[in-house]
Design goal:
Shape: elongated
Order of helices and strands: HHHH
Distance between the termini: 31 Å
Helix content: over 70%
CATH class: Mainly Alpha
Number of strands: 0
Structural class: mainly alpha
CATH topology: Methane Monooxygenase Hydroxylase, Chain G, domain 1
Oligomer: single chain
Length: about 90
């Protein structure tokens, strides 16, 4: 069963993803309405930032698990420390 910290982290990630979804809808509406480029790009940058923050939060949890219990991380997530590093570089 996930710990309270794990559940709180999951809630934070879900909130970030929901926020990104709302921001993406705003981008779509802005394009549909023919809004100025500046408005569209500003909203798009907000979406990208929200997705990046969600990705880093997910990766942070994986990294903490790998550091605290590498064997458990490998069993439950199938992640080695090398794979965590590759995931980090994908987001960087």
């Amino acid at each position: 069963m996930p710990s309270n910290d794990d559940l709180a982290a999951q809630r934070r990630v879900l909130n970030r993803l929901r926020r990104a979804g709302g921001q993406l809808n705003a981008v779509i509406e802005a394009v549909e309405q023919g809004k100025p480029c500046r408005d569209v790009i500003t909203q798009l940058a907000a979406v990208r930032g929200a997705l990046d923050r969600a990705g880093f939060a997910i990766l942070s949890s994986a990294m903490q698990e790998c550091i605290s219990d590498p064997e458990e991380a490998l069993d439950s997530e199938g992640l080695t420390t090398g794979e965590v590093e590759k995931l980090f570089l994908m987001l960087a």
